[in-house]
Amino acid sequence: MDRESLSYRTLKNVLYSMVGFVLPIAFSVFITPVVVHRLGIETYGIYILVNTILGFLGLLDLGLVSALVKYISEYEALGRRDELREFLYSANTIYALVGTFGLLIFWALGIFFLPLFHITGTSQHNIFVVFLMGGVIFFISSLNNVYTTIPMALQRFDLVTKINFGQLAFLNVATLILVIMGFQLKAIFLINIVSLLILSGFYYFYSQRLLGRIPLRFGWSARALKKMYRFGFFASVSGIMQTSLSQLDRLIIPIFLGPAALSYYSLPGNVAQKTTTVVGSLSGVFFPLSSSLFSRGLMEKLTEVYRKIIRNLSVVAAAIAVPIAVFGYKILFYWLGKNFADKGLVILWILAATYFLLAVYGTATNFLMGMGKVKFLAWSSFILALINIILMALLIPRYGIVGAAWAFLGGALPIIGIFFFMEKKYMGLGDVGAFYAKLFGKIF
User: Fold this and answer.
1) Nearest 5 degrees, angle CA 346-CA 275-CA 253?
2) Would you call 316 helix, strand, or coil by DSSP?
3) How far apart are the C-alpha atoms of 250 and 229, rounded to whole Å?
4) How confident is the model at residue 5 (pLDDT cuts 50, 70, 90)?
């Protein structure tokens, strides 16, 4: 196979992306049970809560990551180096401001809002320090966002996988050693900060090499900012709504039920979520690819690639979701123990179906982002999130964490109708019903 061909580069990126997904699972399988039982159910719930807040604060950039992937790949494909330079300088400045704001939010949460999450079994001072360290993690991650995006936008997923694996190995081994020695959340978040600084250094170095003569520095361009947020605003609305759909339950559960309930909900959910993360690790490479093809007017090639990918990744998603549901009790029993298996099996069943739908939807999302159809994604994600929020408000107070799982599934069901509309309007595909009837008939 020609090493310069589109097929070779795409296959290479997919394989590296897949490796980047499998390695975290390998660490998680062995390390998570030790961390959960050493920290305790409530303390681990606090750990999940801080990471959930980090995920939500990542939306403060208003879609800048999506804009970076699209325009870095597009400008590089078209040779528009001056605009690329202008774009990167402005993005660095925005991320410095976003990181500072996120740090202040974590500080405020630690000072004023800890009682909201019913955290009772741990020193309030210690929890404040943990929240403050979460803010530092967010600040460093924000400054690093441009550098982590550059290799991805230039379709160098081999570099992304290698760098992330090194950081992942260091972080997980260090965390395991710390909890075995009896250290708690402050030590875990401190080692997160150290590993993030190391990661930042590697990404900065390789981004400089990939961009050649374009130095990475701070700047400000009204033209670049207008363009990035014309695309990024709707991408951010879509991102906010998708995050609300997939993560808001983890923020609301501790408010109603406490952090221990969050552990019993999140860990089975993490198993079911593997469908989305596997497929996402494979389909993420098609965002910059579709942007490159669309910017050059190769629509026929784009739709051909799309149909092949959606067919194959739907099979992959089903091949993961079904065994997770069938062997769910044994997975939870041998991984976390009988208590988690008894309390989490129904949640795992419901979320296995939910994450299957989200996995297929996420694949289509990557193509539409590359095509610039962010307004449609924003509206469709808003509808999904709104349904989810309404259902959570109705079901969590009455049915607890099982109600949260049903709310999540209810919010994902309209994806079926969204697919039909999207493929006809934006892909120009006229046989949508027949295609999916044949595909899922074979799968089932």
Assistant:
1) 45
2) helix
3) 29
4) low
